[in-house]
Amino acid sequence: MKNKILILIAILALYSCQSKTESKNIIKTIIQDTLSKTIGGTADVSDAPAKEDKAAKLIRKQLKVLLKNDLPVLTKENRFFYYEAFDLNNDQKNEYFVGFSNSYFCGSGGCSGYILNNKGSLINSFTVTDFPIYVTTSSTEKFYNLLMKSGGLFHHIKMKNGKYPSNPSVQEKWKGDLPKESTKVLDIYDKKLVKYSF
User: Fold this and answer.
1) Which tens digit of pLDDT belongs to each residue from 151-182?
2) What distance in Å separates the CA atoms of residue 46 and residue 8, rounded to the nearest whole number?
3) How far is 114 from 5, CA to CA, in rounded Å?
4) Which of 129, 131, 159 is nearest to 144 (CA)?
5) What's the rounded Cα separation, in Å, for the pair 31 and 104?
6) Residue 143, C-beta contacts closer than 8 angstroms, at least 6 positions apart
């Protein structure tokens, strides 16, 4: 919607700068057509470029390295990811939770994913995880602890020697309710996160 408004403003600016010639009628027609399609919701945005951001480019580049052996067998439908940024160690720089939701990366036990630092380097890979992931307020080795669901149960995931365990299903089971102060990340199904290709 913002793009449509910006286009409209740009067209109006061009319109106001034009001399009173035949081009005025052309611009007026374009403005009227754009306004009617925008208001009516019928504007064709199918060729509009996909939303792209610096983090997605960084993640895409790293995924091509991490999954270089998988790329030849991945179908186009399986070559997409979701991500969410969160500062896991309070250094004022976001880390990136990267997840997948397709048959190549997911099975009956859950899905695979990664945690990357703000420069795109791998902090951790994980398997058999259901989304979302919860970041708690407690920490180990200066990184927040995580609650990851695997096999229908939450597991308490703590940093150890600079890494989180890669298989949450074999970690300590979480007892009790989810802490209210925990933050939900990589909520692929409910948050409607942007899907990026790689």
Assistant:
1) 899 999 999 999 999 999 999 999 999 999 99
2) 18
3) 37
4) 159
5) 47
6) 88, 89, 159, 164
Residue 32 in 3-state DSSP? helix
With pLDDT > 70 as the criterion, what percentage of the chain qualifies?
A: 74
- pLDDT of 26-85, one tens digit each? 655 556 655 555 455 554 444 444 445 899 999 999 999 999 999 999 999 999 999 999
| Alpha-carbon separation of residue 101 from 104, 111, 129, 146 (angstroms) | 8, 7, 11, 20
Are 157 and 171 a contacting pair, CB within 8 Å?
Answer: yes
E strand or H helix at 13: helix 2-17
User: What is the spatial distance between Cα 129 and Cα 90, in angstroms, rounded to a whole number?
Assistant: 24
Using pLDDT thresholds of 50, 70 and 90, give the confidence band for residue 109.
confident
Encoded tokens for 130: 């259901």
Lookup result for tokens 């939701």:
101
Rounded-to-integer distance, Cα 22 and Cα 189, Å: 52
Burial class, 82, CB count within 10 angstroms (exposed 0-12 / middle 13-18 / buried 19+): buried
Q: What is the pLDDT of residues 13-28, one digit of tens each?
A: 555 555 444 455 665 5
Local structure of residue 169 (DSSP, 8 states): G
pTM for the model stands at 0.72
Residue type for 187, please? D
Cis ω before 132 (30° cut-off from 0)? yes
